[in-house]
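Section 3.1: Structural characterization of target chains.
Under the original work plan, the team committed to producing a structural model for every single-chain target entering the pipeline before any wet-lab resources were allocated. The record below documents one such target. The sequence was received from the expression subgroup and is listed exactly as submitted; it comprises 416 residues.
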Amino acid sequence: MTPLIPGSATTVRIAWRSLWRNPRRTSLALAAIGLSVTLVLAYTSVLRAYGDWIVDTITGPMLGHVQAHEPGWRSDRLIDQTLRDVDRVLRQVRSDPDVASATARLYAPALAARGEEGFAVIVIGLDTAVESGPARLLPPPGRTLRQREAMVGRQLGASMGLRVGDQLAIVGQGVDGSLANELFTVVTLVTTSVDLVNRQGVMIDLTEAQTLFAMPGEAHELVIHSVRPAAARELAARVAAMPVLAGAEVLDWERLAPEMISLIQVVDIAGLLVLVLVFVAAIAGVANTMLMATFERTREFGMLLALGVRPVRIIVLVLLESLALGAIGALVGAAAGVILVAVTHRTGIDYATLTGGGPGELSFAGLRWSLRFYPTLTALDVVRAAAAVGVTSLIAAAWPALRASRQEPARALRGL
């Protein structure tokens, strides 16, 4: 008889043949493991999409991944608390390879009127070309504002009875105390994901806003989007160290919106709990299969032990069978999970439809949140699920393997 050598080709062949002695039971175990992996990957993709959705919603339109301001501006919002020479600052910031985009904004309170009635508004000076696009403040397609042209938040426009082509008078005060007043042509009414902009926003070109409010080369805020959002804190540290921003307050989005971190942490905890619950079920399935297999082969193991095979080799044989069962189930489940996620990523998931209809977005923390998100997976998610199956398979087979190796040969040969 060929000896069982741990890790040898002979041991692997015997383990493989033993695994398929009862094809029906093995197939059912594989289906259970594969379904578990598929569900884990599907749920992980939804949670990852949910986390990315939260980050994109709070960073894309308004915060960016990094912001720079004059110290104290975020709390006081005084019009004279500005960053200076912003064109030179932007050139320096954009030179960092991790910066996907960088833009400056100017905010000024003012009165706006189409006729006799005035409305309190926030004039926002910005670069519309940079600010337009998916997960940005303005919806695509981007339109460069020309002189004396303005975009108006749709809710504000409805309150004022504005239509495209109307003349809008803006009256405010310059930073030097001078009167800031000008007529602008409304070129579009926009709906953004920021409630304040929709209700009170009048958007004009940054250069024109600087001229109107006597703030040449100045801005209140620098908004930076990173190529690698996960490395926003490191980018903030590098930007803060730039000489052109000496003395400025530079913060990453996690410090700008710490309350949102708890939402993401809840998502991570939920994912971990589901992973544990699903694989507890997988452990039970594998343990049951291997326990039944070892009971059926009591005489076989007794014979091997009587022939002098060491108990450790019996353990290796059972563990190899369990590992093969888990590996095949993991491969099948991973393939099904990746295909399912790929299909849903293309079409997206509309949460409003799943819950019986209703509005396609919700308003929270001053932002409008779309209820459509796109499941996504990383290679690490697939590897982690497969590794978890391998570990659970070995854990589940530990007791059946020890039981098989500790039998007394004489009793085992009698089937006791």
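Residues 71-247 form one domain.
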